[in-house]
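#structure-requests
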Amino acid sequence: MKIGLLILVLALVAVAALMAWVRLAPSDPARWHGALTFTKDEDKEGAAIRVVPVNDPSAALAELDRIALATPRTERLAGAVEEGSVTYITRSAFWGFPDYTTITAAEDRVILFGRLRFGQSDFGVNKARVEGWISQRTPEGT
C-alpha cells in the first residue's frame, strides 16, 4: 500500500513539474520573432504559413493585431505594428503549451506563421488559429 501511494505521489509530482516547465519556460524573442519572407501558403507538421494579399499591409497588420490580442490566452511576445512585424504567444487552456504566431506586413501582403514550441504535432491548432484570424478581418481590410 505504501509503495503504491509513493508511486502515485511521484507521478503527480512529475506531472506538476512538467506542467510548470511548459508554463514557465522562458520565451526568447530572438528565437521566435523576426520579419517573415515566405511567399506561399504552406502547412507543416505543427505549423501553418499563410500569405494574404492586401491593399494596405500596415492597416491589415493593425487589424490582425487587434484580432490576435482579443484571442483568449494570447499576448504579444515581441515587435509592434509600427515595426511591421509582431509575434504572439497563445497558450493551450489546460497544459499551457505555448504556440507562437508571427505576422509581418510586406509590400502587398501580410504573412502569418503559426508554430508550436513543444512536441511534433499540434493537431491542426495553429492552422485553425491563423485561418481564424484571417477570416475575422473586415472586407475593407483587404
